[in-house]
Design goal:
binds adenosine-5'-diphosphate, four-stranded antiparallel β-sheet, Rossmann fold, ABC transporter transmembrane region fold, alpha/beta, 2 domains, six-stranded mixed β-sheet, 594 residues, binds magnesium ion, elongated
């Protein structure tokens, strides 16, 4: 993705904006938290002023407290007021913690929702082009970072408002002393800005490393069998070790930098206090009762200031995760699945006019492909591997759009067709049968609730998979394990054919649907597809030449170009590829398809 953007250092304000955008929808909760923290801190400040005055009164053997800021009260009244302040402050703190927990949970849920919705609504191309494991790590690790950032933000809010309450109280008690402390705090905060910048830059690197790590791990999970068979586990271990090294090193750097912030802040702040006291001594400051209260307030302010400094450090380290999340959401939102408003009369004729498509490289996967498929026609597609057949299937399904030329359905551009209308009528069998973790019925029905049990059974019969299903302990309710792992490759393929047939499609596109099947199963499925002839428009990318028996016409694709399109007997005259492929398959072109 955009490496440049990652490396660019953004102004602090933008970071603040980023995190603020996360909590913006929760203004009421944020406001409650702010009010609760502020009042709680005022009560605490009040308590500290009271305690210092009580202590002075006790030393002096007085029954009267004060005057503090012009007020004088009885000792017993002061103690009672202190008790009430403590209880009220505790209640407010508990309330604050609860609001903060709610806020974090809300933001986490909202982030997950936003990202997963954006992903699910994105075009298939955008989904497909993201590395394996990307979505998973975005939704788990990065969302966790974002949640932590909210916790940090609420902590920072509490610290900031407490600081303000304390300084306010301090100004009330003694303006000059407090003003001096205020300036010192501002200077200390400014000194720490470069450190925070560094933390942020390191954290960006960390997020990148974490995503790489997640990709590698998800690959590892998918390639277990190959790894063991080829005996290359050691190399994978090395790779994981390298990535682990990088991530943990970066993690360590971020953590040490973030950890340093607090003590550095504290030392600087104490130095400021020391300087302040020295100044007071030089000025021969005499009003002991005021100075005592202000000292207590300021020392406590320092610890709130420290919380604020460490929260700023944590936010700097968490902000890149939020940036990543935003980038991912923007990327998916920016590439929505095509959806139009047009409703054609039928799914066919399907007309490709000079269609060119490339995956971003200079070499087009399909160039200037022109053809017309009539309703109810069965079209076979053959060609060497890498020729562009699967790409053509994706274009015909409307999952990718041509770069040049047009693809029309009954005279309507495919990308303008209303998606619901289209997907209700179109079915697809992929080269790799992808099953969900669930039962047979769930896999065939595939979330289309209008498909009843009868249709399920019927499609299983037609896909020649009923016998296999009936051999399972709970037949259609049998759980197939993780992504159908309890079935053989051929069984999975037939389940996915049943899935395609169950919805009674008007257009059926199959990408080498029988590649994992034995000759007999292949023959039975061929019969099923042959029976659709004239009723359903079928485009079948053929793995075996025998499949072509049922085709009205055959398309030959070689190196991204349509080199022949015609009936079997036409192709036996016009296409070398067809003739050679038939000869290799041991089928005589003199009789085939005639
Ligand atoms: N997702 C992709 N990104 C980049 N290139 C791709 C992608 N998928 C396929 N290609 C390339 O496009 C060409 C056609 O691929 P494909 O349509 O899968 O061929 P076929 O199905 O005929 O074997 C190949 O050169 C392949 O390398
Ligand atoms: Mg293919």
């Amino acid at each position: 993705m955009s490496v440049n953007r990652d490396q660019a250092s953004e102004p602090e304000s933008e970071r603040g904006g980023l995190i603020a955008s996360l909590v913006r929808p929760y203004r009421v909760k944020m406001g409650t938290l702010a009010a609760v923290s502020f009042v709680g801190a005022l009560l605490e400040a009040f308590f500290l002023v009271l305690i210092s005055a009580v202590a002075l009164a006790l030393i002096a053997g007085d029954d009267l407290i004060g005057p503090v800021a012009g007020y004088t009260v009885e000792l017993s009244t002061a103690l009672a007021a202190g008790g009430v302040a403590l209880v009220a402050q505790l209640a407010l703190k508990i309330l604050g913690v609860r609001v903060s927990a709610h806020l974090t949970a809300d933001v986490t849920a909202a982030q997950r929702r936003e990202l997963s919705h954006a992903y699910l609504k994105a075009s298939w191309a955008a989904q497909h082009d993201a590395p394996a494991g990307r979505l998973q790590s975005l939704l788990t690790t990065l969302v966790q970072y974002a949640a932590n950032a909210i916790t940090t933000l609420t902590n920072a809010t509490v610290a900031l408002l407490s600081l303000i309450a304390f300084l306010g109280t301090g100004l009330f008690v003694d303006a000059a002393a407090t003003g001096a402390v205020l300036i010192a705090l501002a200077v200390v905060g400014a000194i720490l800005i470069p450190l925070r910048r560094r933390i942020k830059a390191r954290s960006r690197t960390l997020q990148r490393a974490n995503l790489d790590f997640a990709n590698a791990v998800s690959e590892l999970g998918a390639l277990g069998m190959e790894m063991q068979t080829f005996g290359v586990q050691d190399r994978f271990v090395e790779r994981i070790d390298e990535l682990t090294e990088t991530t943990t090193q970066t993690q360590r750097r971020v953590q040490s930098l973030t950890g340093i912030l607090s003590p550095v802040y504290m030392s600087l702040a104490y130095a400021a206090v020391l300087a302040g006291v020295a100044v007071l001594a030089l000025l021969q400051f005499g009003r002991l009762e005021a100075v005592g209260a202000v000292m207590l307030l300021m020392l406590r302010s320092l610890s709130y200031g420290q919380q604020l400094a460490s929260a700023a450090g944590s936010l700097a380290s968490q902000a890149p995760a939020i940036e990543r999340l935003r980038q991912a959401v923007d990327q998916y939102v920016g590439a929505p699945a095509a959806d139009g408003a047009a409703v054609p009369t039928h799914v066919a004729p399907l007309v490709a006019d000079n269609v060119t498509f490339s995956y971003g490289s200079d070499h087009a996967a399909l160039s200037n492909v022109t053809f017309s498929i009539a309703p109810g026609e069965v079209i076979g597609v053959i060609g060497p591997s890498g020729a562009g057949k699967s790409t053509l299937a994706q274009l015909l399904l409307g999952l990718r759009e041509p770069d040049q030329g047009s693809l029309e359905v009954s005279g309507v551009r495919l990308q303008d067709v209303e998606r619901h209308w289209w997907s209700d009528r179109v079915a697809f069998v992929a080269q790799d049968a992808n099953l969900i973790t669930g039962t047979v019925a769930e896999n065939i029905r595939f979330f289309r609730d209008d498909i009843n049990d009868e249709a399920l059974r019927d499609s299983a019969v037609r896909a020649n998979v009923l016998r296999d299903i009936e051999a399972l302990p709970h037949t259609f309710d049998a759980h197939l394990g993780e992504r159908g792992s309890r079935l053989s490759g051929g069984q999975r393929q037939r389940i996915s054919i049943a899935r395609a047939l169950a919805g009674d499609p008007e257009l059926l596109i199959l990408d080498e649907p029988t590649s994992a099947l034995d000759g007999r199963s292949e023959g039975l499925i061929r019969d099923t597809l042959g029976a659709l002839r004239g009723k359903v428009t079928v485009v079948i990318i053929a793995h075996r030449m025998s499949t072509l028996d049922i085709c009205d016409r055959i398309m030959v694709i070689e190196d991204g170009r349509l080199t022949a399109l015609g009936t079997p007997s036409e192709l036996s005259r016009s296409s070398d590829f067809y003739r050679n492929a038939m000869a290799t398959a041991g089928i005589s072109t003199d009789v085939a398809g005639v």
